[in-house]
Design brief:
Distance between the termini: 56 Å
Shape: elongated
Number of helices: 17
Oligomer: single chain
CATH architecture of the largest domain: Up-down Bundle
Number of strands: 13
CATH topology of the largest domain: 3 helical TM bundles of succinate and fumarate reductases
Strand content: 15-25%
Radius of gyration: 34 Å
CATH class of the largest domain: Mainly Alpha
Helix content: 40-55%
Order of helices and strands: HHHHHHHHHHEEHEHEEEHHEEHEEHEHEE
Number of domains: 3
Length: 552
């Protein structure tokens, strides 16, 4: 579904207007549990709002807009395969019109065209006039509420704070329709409130009342119009499907090995749904989340450009140029895709980035490890070891903070730090050298402070390397951290281990020094083998970054 921003705003705005009408309306019904007077009191506040010129335009305009957008959405779908909740919302929404027609037309038109007083006595008498109408209104209440609840839930669940309010919303979702039904039943079964059968019979059978006959004739016209529109949309879909084949097909290659022949005009999400391939889409393909996003392996240059709605969503997550929203992208030629988010993604995936986001980016990785930590643990009580390590990590954290470094994670007595996450790669290369110098200075101060606690000074080894890596939030959904993975991250870890071989404090790749705008001293350079890499890496073995010519 290629949705425009204005279309989405109209759907949301019209839906919220209808919510603003339905919830007070059901609350009014619920007051029937207490008394007719209570129902009339609230109706006295609500009726002037919705019967005013502005209220009428707002309410019926929202109803017409919402219904028209539903039909348009149905027409635009190239496949009727969809999640159960989408199908339920669509069917329930379409069922509202035939259920609502008589109730809405009769009560509103009686007020508009006759002198009859429209109050809850008349409304209840009309509803309980025939068993069919009674059951139709009860079914209408449940259908409207189910449609509303589904819509609000699947709109709200992509919001970050939604889970906090969910328990209260569940209570409202269950209690309000139940109370409305109870109020409706109690008021209808009370003879004092439902004794208008003869009055209704007399009014409905008054042949001289031309206004009444006109009003009664509006329901079949409304139902016929609804049926014509619905059948027209379904017929239009079929005609569009037949003609779409004339525009050709494209081949969609899925990472799972599926190769699908897809008519041009169908979105990637619609294509995989039609082929029964599971694919994440928390918001239902409305571009309110980015869980349906895919990486385009081939065919990117031939794709239509992103719409404003898609571009805004992708920009929000800093997506790479080869990432597109499956719900908004309609290829016209062959394309190969790889889903980025698991097909069973939960609603939290829409606003929690843990395990779901990642971009390729040039960054600098620094691995730091504490030397002799095993001996430290063997000669001291556990409490003393923890005391020393906490101060050690506190100093490293301060060094990172002072040099724009990002603490990614620690393992035992070491940590991974990242530089250049803001996209300024050269500055990141300079900052990482400053970070290494800051750490060594702080280690000297820490050793002086703990000289009475230590048998020998604490020493660290630092490995630094730069290059492309996948940066993103990783780990458990409840405790994600911003980190990086990739070959260049592993190299930094291997270089840190080489500090033991060269008996130095820092080993930094020569490329990183050059990217920082400095010229490595050939006398300090070494070519080293790194596990996992076929070619050797040129590095500098340093005791201090001040050994680099031109630094400071």
């Amino acid at each position: 579904m290629n949705i425009t921003i204005w279309e989405r705003r109209l759907r949301l705005g019209s839906g919220l207007i209808l919510v603003a009408f339905v919830i007070p309306h059901l609350t009014n019904h619920a007051l029937g549990i207490f008394s007719f007077e209570a129902m009339e009191a609230l109706r006295g506040w609500l009726a002037p709002i919705w019967r005013s010129t502005a209220g009428t335009i707002l309410l019926y305009g929202a109803m017409t807009t919402h219904f028209a957008l539903a039909l348009y959405s149905l027409f635009r779908r190239t496949t009727l395969r969809m999640p159960v909740w989408e199908a339920a919302q669509l069917i329930l929404g379409l069922a509202i019109i035939p259920l609502l027609a008589f109730h809405a037309i009769f009560n509103r038109m009686i007020w508009e065209f006759t002198t009859t007083k429209v109050d809850y006595h008349l409304v209840i008498a009309t509803i309980w006039y025939k068993d069919f109408e009674t059951w139709r209104i009860m079914l209408l209440l449940l259908v409207v509420w189910a449609h509303l609840a589904i819509g609000l839930h699947f709109w709200g669940r992509v919001k970050a704070h939604y889970p906090k309010f969910l328990p209260y919303l569940y209570a409202i979702a269950i209690l309000l329709p139940v109370l409305a039904l109870l109020g409706f039943l109690r008021s209808g079964m009370n003879p004092a409130y439902s004794g208008g059968e003869k009055y209704i019979d007399q009014m409905l059978n008054a042949p001289s009342n031309s206004e009444l006959q006109f009003i009664l004739g509006l329901e079949p016209v409304t139902l016929l119009t609804f049926l014509i529109l619905l059948l027209g949309v379904l017929l239009g879909r079929e005609v569009k499907r037949i003609f779409s084949r004339r525009h050709g097909v494209f081949r969609l290659q899925h990472t799972w090995g599926n190769s699908i022949s897809v008519p041009v005009g169908r979105s990637i999400l619609e294509a995989v749904r039609a082929a029964s391939i599971p694919h994440a889409s928390v918001c239902g393909g409305r571009a309110r989340c980015t869980t349906c996003r895919v990486r385009i392996s081939s065919g990117l240059e031939r794709l239509p450009p992103s719409s404003q709605l898609e571009a805004t969503a992708l920009k929000r997550i800093n997506a790479q140029p080869n990432v597109r929203l499956a719900c908004q992208t309609r290829p016209q030629s062959d394309v190969t895709i790889t889903p980025i988010v698991p097909a069973n993604a939960t609603p939290e995936a829409a606003y929690k980035t843990g395990g779901l986001s990642g971009i390729e980016q040039k960054i600098v990785a620094m691995f730091v490890d504490l030397r002799g930590s095993t001996a430290l643990g063997q000669s001291r009580m556990p409490y003393d070891v923890i005391f020393i390590l906490n101060q050690f990590f506190a100093e490293l954290a301060e060094a990172l903070s002072a040099t724009r470094g990002h603490y990614a994670h620690f393992a035992g007595d070491g940590l991974l730090a990242l530089y250049g996450l803001d996209g300024k790669f050269q500055q990141g290369c300079r900052d990482v050298l400053a970070g290494a110098a800051e750490m060594l200075d702080r280690m000297e101060l820490l050793n002086k402070r703990l000289k009475d606690e230590l048998d020998e000074p604490l020493r660290i080894g630092i490995g630094i390397h730069s290059g492309e890596a996948i940066v993103g939030t990783m780990g458990p959904p409840k405790a994600p951290t911003l980190s990086a993975i990739g070959d260049n991250i592993n190299i930094a870890a291997r270089l840190e281990a080489k500090t033991k071989v060269f008996d130095c404090n820092i080993i930094v790749s020569s490329d990183t020094v050059r990217h920082a705008g400095l010229k490595p001293d050939p006398a300090l350079e070494h070519k080293v083998d790194v596990r996992g890499r076929e070619s050797k890496i040129t590095v500098l073995a340093l005791d201090s970054v001040n050994d680099i010519p031109g630094y400071n």
